[in-house]
Design a protein that fits this description.
The protein has 82 residues and is an all-alpha fold. The chain is built from three helices and no strands. The N and C termini lie close together (9 Å).
């Protein structure tokens, strides 16, 4: 009945998840696992956010917008054209 739509949701989520995971591996997000356990114990002063917005933020915003747009398109198609 609506199996193609559910499969499209699953595939979209998998593609986005794999893309983010590969990005995290490439940028070294998992490189220092031993230091991660001590981060909560460090006393640091909070830093003001930088005025420079990086390319990564734009990529994350684009992926979020693409996911929401794909959801609206799939639900709209399922409701109005089926």
């Amino acid at each position: 009945m609506y199996y193609p739509f559910f499969l499209a949701y699953i595939l979209t989520g998998l593609i986005i998840g794999i893309t983010v995971f590969v990005w995290a591996l490439k940028t070294g997000q998992f490189s220092d696992q031993q230091r991660a356990r001590f981060l909560a114990l460090e006393e640091t002063t909070p830093q003001a956010p930088s005025a420079k917005v990086g390319r990564d933020l734009y990529c994350v915003l684009y992926l979020g917008f693409a996911a929401v747009a794909a959801s609206f398109v799939l639900v709209g198609y399922a409701l109005f054209f089926r």
